[in-house]
Structure formats: C-alpha cells, structure tokens
Amino acid sequence: MAYTPSQPRFGRFIPGFAAGARKPAAVAEPAGAKRVQFSPSLIPYLFLAPQLAVIFIFFYWPSVQAVQSSFYIEDPFGFGATFVGFANYTDAIFSPEYLSIAKFTVVFTGLVTFFSLALGLLLAVKADAVIRGSSAYKTLLISVYAIAPPVAGLIGMMFFDLHIGPFVKLAAWFGWDMQVGLNYYDTAFALIVVAVWKQIPYNFIFFLSGLQGVPVSVREAATIDCRSGFRRFWTVTLPLLAPTAFFLLIINITYALFDTFGVIDVMVKDKPANNPITLVYKVYMDGFRGNDIGSSSAQSVILMIVVFVLTIIQFRFIEKRIHYT
Amino acid sequence: MFKKFTMAAVAVSFSASSSFAATNITWWHGMGGRNGEVINEVAQKFNASQTSCAITPVSKGSYEEALAAGIAAFRSGEQPNILQVFDAGAATIINAKGAVIPAEDLINKSGYKFDRNAFIPGVRYLYAAADGKFVGMPFNSSAPIMYTNPEALKKAGVEAPKTWEEFEAIAPKLKEAGYIPLVQTQLTWEFTENFFSRNNIQFATNNNGYDSIVDTKLKVTDPNLIMMFEKLKAWKDEGYFAYYGAGWNDNQKPFEEGKVALWIGSSGSFGGLKKTATMPFSATFLPYWGSINGAGKNTFIGGAALFAMAGKPEAENKCVADFFQFLTSPEIQKFYHQATGYVAITEAAYELAKKEGYYEKEPVAEVGIKQLKLEGGEWSKGYRLGFYPQIRSIMEREYNRIFAGETTVKDAFDTIEKEGNELLARFAKTAG
Fold it and tell me: Partners and quaternary state (chain B) (predicted)?
C-alpha cells in the first residue's frame, strides 16, 4: 500500500525554499581563505540516523513489501499465496475499468492543478494590489486550508446533496438537473470543485509571498517601460514568479493525485456504483474493501513508477526552463 | 482514619483480584450510532450475568473497516476473540481455513448443546459450511421487506402488492395520486441476491458457491433477472420507479418524506424509520413474480455474523462460547430485536416476543421474521462467493449505467458475469 509523494515535504511553508535551494555546483573560494578539514566522525551519521530510520521504516520497507506481494495472489488472512508473476499487473492494466479510472485520474489531476493554480494566482494578484487590509484578506483566504480533507469532503457533500444541497438548487435554476452520486459527470464536477476549493488558499499564500518578493525597483522600471498592466504581468512579474509556480505545480499535482483521497472517500464512499474515483482510491478499494492484496500491491507499484517518471520529467525538463534569481 | 484506609485498600485489592480472575475477551464490530450503543448494552448485560468472563466490545467503524482491521490484526497475531463480519464478506473469512473456529464446534466443545433447528429457517445457512455446520454465529440479521405508505395506498384506492404483476397494475394509480410508486435502497441485496432466493432461481454454479470456490461462476444472465431489470428500467422511464443512486440514504429519504408509496428496505431499518418518517407507515413481504414457476419462497438474511477467531487460549474460547450461548438466549435475542429492529434469529426469542404481544403493538417488526420463515426453496438458502464486495461494486456500477441509459440491460449483465467470473477465478487462486 505504499506510495510516495513525488516531493519530500520539507519547506512546505517556506516559499521559495525548496525550489530555490539549488546552488551553483562550484562556489569560487575567496583567495587566501584557509580550508578547514574536519576528520571524519560518526556524529553526522548519528544526526542523520533518526531521519533515515523513518524513511526506511515508513517508505522503503513497505515499498519492498508492496513489490513482493504484487507478484502473488494471496489469501487475505495470509494462509496461502500463489505466485502469479506479472498477472496482477497485466490484469490491472488491461482491465477496462482500470483504464477508465486512469483516464479520469489524468483529467482530474490536470483540471484540479490548473484551476487551483489559476484561481490562486488570480486571488493573489488581486490581493497584492490591495495595500490596506491585505493581512485580513490573507487570513480569510488561508483559513480554508486549515480544513481537513474529510471535512472539506463533508461540506462538499452537503452542498451537492441530491435532496438538500444548495448548489443543486442553484443548478436547477439554470435548468441543470445535477445528480451527484448518480451521474458520472456531475459527480466528477463536484469532486473537482471541492478539490480545487480546498487547494486554492495554499496556492494563494505562496503566490502572494512570491509576488511580494518581486523587487520594487523592478516593478517601477517596468511601470515606466510599459503601460499595459497585463503585459507587465506577463513579461516581468510572471517570469519572476516562475520558481514559486514550479514548486506549486509539483505540489498541486501531488495533491490532486494523492491528497484528494479524503475528499473522494467522503463524497463517494457509500455510493460506489458508477462514480469517478482516482487510481489511489482504487488501490484502497481493492486492498481494504476488497481484500485483494496482490492486485492492490501491483496497482500501488504502478503508481510508484508513475510518480517516479513524473519527478524525473519535472526536474529534467521543466526545471531547466526556470530562472532562479 | 487508618482503619478506613485499610478497608479501602482491601476493597480495592478485592475488586482488582476479582477482575483479574475473569478472562477478558474482545469483540470487534462495525456498528455505530444507536446500534453501537446497543452492542455495549449487550456486553454489559453479559458481564453482569456471570463472573468468569469479561467482554469488551470495540467499534472499528463500518463493516468493511472491521473486516479489514480483523484481517490485519490476524496477520500480526493480535486478532480479537470475536470479529463481526458482514454478509458479503462471509466467503472471505469462511474460506480462510484456520482463521476461525466454527461456532458450532466451539459451542459443542464447551459442553452446550447446539441445535441448528432452534434458528429460524432464513438464518440457518448464510454463515454455515456446505454441510450446514454453523461457522459464524448469526447476530444482527435482517430481510429485505417492502415498506408501504398507507396514506398513498388509500388515496390511490389500492392494496399493497404481493407480486410484481400486481405492482404493475397499481403503479399508474399511485402515480396519478401524486406519489412516486416505488423506490429501493440496495439493488444488489434486494433486487439481485434476494431476487434469486425469493423467486427460487440459481445464483451461481457449485450450489451457489457453497460446494467449492474452484470454477464457481455467476449465473446473472438468467432471463428472469434480465426481465426484472428491463422492467425496472421501463418503470423508471414511465415514472413508476425512482432511482437516486447507490447510496442507502439517498433512496430512503424520499420515502421518509412521504413522497413515495412503496419502499423496499431492510427490516433492520425499522428502528431508525420510526424516528425519521414523517407519516405512518406499514410493511409487507418483498414481492415476487407470479409468472415464475416456484416463486414466492423465503429470503435469506442480510446483516452480519460473529466469528470466533482461531489462535486464542482455551479459556478465552470457552468465554466466547459462553457469550454466544448468552447471545442466543431468548431474553437477549428479544432485547436485541426490540432495541434495534433486526429480526429475532431464534424461534424461542420470536415466540417470547409474540407472547408478550410485541407484534400487536409493532406489526412491522414481525414482517421480516415472517418472510424468513416462509417455505424455503432450493436456492433460497444463500450464496458463498469470494471477492463479493467487489462483485457488488461491479453490479452497482452497471446498474447505474442502465438507469443512466449508458448501456442495455443485456450488456450490463454480460459485463457483470464476465468481470464477476474473473474475480471468482482470482479468489479461487487465493486458496492455492
């Protein structure tokens, strides 16, 4: 059941830290500086040990177990296991249901990432323009982030409830007979709205601090050179925001892929039926609700590979285009 | 002062030693809300009734979560003495040879006499082995019954239907009277599993899966079942049947609000419904098809059973046997039946409640039991299918697609049979 977020979570609350941590490989030493050599000692390793132990116990060990059990079809209680080679993988990959869930996961991740980034940026730009009372705005917008995903799911479920949901009534005014939990697309819509709503504040606060980090002198120079505010934003502000945006892109993809679990669980838990779910949720469904450990392990290994590939793409190709100041 | 202290110390040591003398057993279950409270009350009653055993019930969330927790605990050797497992998970635990001690063996070994015939007919087989031996101890049991809205029936000038043919005849009148004629709460349990039992049709090969898990195949492309769902689809299009999704409450709610004339629900919903319904209600049996030869048999139970987990010391097993014995005593069964709305599972408890005049006061509470006591058929005993929770999910997905118009009934059942059989074949491998 192990999966890994594509990024370690350090520096989540320090904007620009994780993304800006890269330093040029060789730092020129000032002439005449004396190099101090420390003799190798055990102490640094001791300091590292707790962290390494945590990583090993909670990540590597379960991963190895998952890979191992993905090659078996096992009795839930652990009495017998049949070695089946790659059958669990082929069964998953070639099942039409798995494919349709994978397709939904891609669409879901794309839409949630896009909308939560775009809306977060929009709100941040607007809030940045307000000088007076900006801290009040910040507090108001960030407070939503304090809501736990299941609670967000619960609120979403109430808003979209078939019988009492205000959003459903609202949609009915426009002639949209919204049936969350019954109609595939309506449910997908509701899931995306709740997932985006939950993530906007996080993006907002990062973008806002990123915007406030743009030097005033640069802004002033840009104002003199260009009258169009929109073009100024496109050509000057946005490139300067790129490190923040890149960091947020990774965090948001991770969020949409994995952290929306709570939202999905609350919103479609007791109505499995024809509702959209993501791949992570299917891992949970097959493993914990269906007690099919082999298939569930194989699926989680597939997810691990996907995340691995995503990480490589992100750092190999996308990050190269980012200019760090 | 000193005297008081010693007295207190002595008292404390006594009470401590007496609780140490008792054998402690644990009971993991998947019930919440009022039903969870009743479980605590049952445990308290047991603890008060004797001194040698003490039972501690622990809620593990939902049925599925309780099963998952029980499995995880068993694998690490930390299993509880008793685990509650729901109907769809029965094959998982019963096929894991060595995970549980059959309830019947446990009880016999502890010197009690176990009588299968003490249980009402619809309860006897669902948690039993192919030879009829009780593996699980039926606990909270329910039957799918048809709740009715007497106001609606009166307004339309009709009687509650006994067969689906009668329903077809009265549905237009109910609709005309301003009601949704029919809703249900769980298509898999009420209109599939129990469709097979009520109409006495075979559900799966290998004696509905009881004889063997190898090569067991679903028979859901049975023309009668296809006919049922084609009717449901047609009824939905006509406005005679409404479907609000696979969620239990979504479908129950319109009935509680008095918008619906007939609702197929669980007999175990009775207790809750009494609190939430905005109008008087009554109930009758789950309808069957008069056109199907031999239809009208009893249904089997839903709900859950208690399993005695293996690998525990003898003394604790004895306590589990004591507890099972206590649980099936007429008084406790009657208490549980009346406190929750689940059916009384033994004849004796049923007779006791009847003698007290309970059913004259609450006729609805008797409907489920009466339905379980109807004449049994060859295929009304139950089913034993592996990975069944996932098979249910496939059914629910396809049923949703039928009502959304995304697939035809024929294609949907072809898909269910194909994907379901793949899962059954996978399950057969788990025992390898």
Answer: The complex is composed of two ATP-binding proteins (UgpC), two transmembrane proteins (UgpA and UgpE) and a solute-binding protein (UgpB).
CA B231/CA B225 separation, integer angstroms = 10
* CA–CA distance, B358 with B381 (Å, rounded to integer): 28
To the nearest 10°, the Cα dihedral for A293, A299, A305, A310? -140
**B271 CB near a chain A CB, below 8 Å?**
no
Distance (Å) from the alpha carbon of B326 to chain A's nearest alpha carbon:
28
Half-sphere exposure of A46 (CA within 13 A, CB side): 4
- Print burial letters for B299-320: b (CB count within 10 Å at least 16), e (below 16): bbbbbbbbbbbbebeeebbbbb
B340-357 per-position pLDDT tens digit: 889 999 999 999 999 999
What total of structural domains would you count in chain B?
Answer: 2
Contact present, B350 and B344 (Cβ < 8 Å)? yes
The reported pLDDT for the residue numbered A9 is 41
Indicate whether B293 and B223 sit together in one domain: yes
Same domain, yes or no: B207 and B137 = no
Partners of residue B182 on adjacent β-strands: B241, B262
Residues of chain B neighbouring A290 (CB-CB closer than 8 A) = 387, 389-390, 393
Looking at the domain assignment, is residue B1 inside a domain?
no
**B400–A182 CB contact, under 8 Å:** yes
Number of H helices, E strands in chain A: 15, 2
Instruction: Please state, in angstroms and rounded to a whole number, the distance separating the CA atoms of residues A291 and A301.
Output: 17
Residues B239, B233: Cα–Cα separation, whole Å: 10
Task: Check whether residue B269 and residue B322 sit in a common domain.
Answer: no
Indicate the pTM of the whole model. 0.83
Q: What is the pLDDT of residue A34?
A: 64
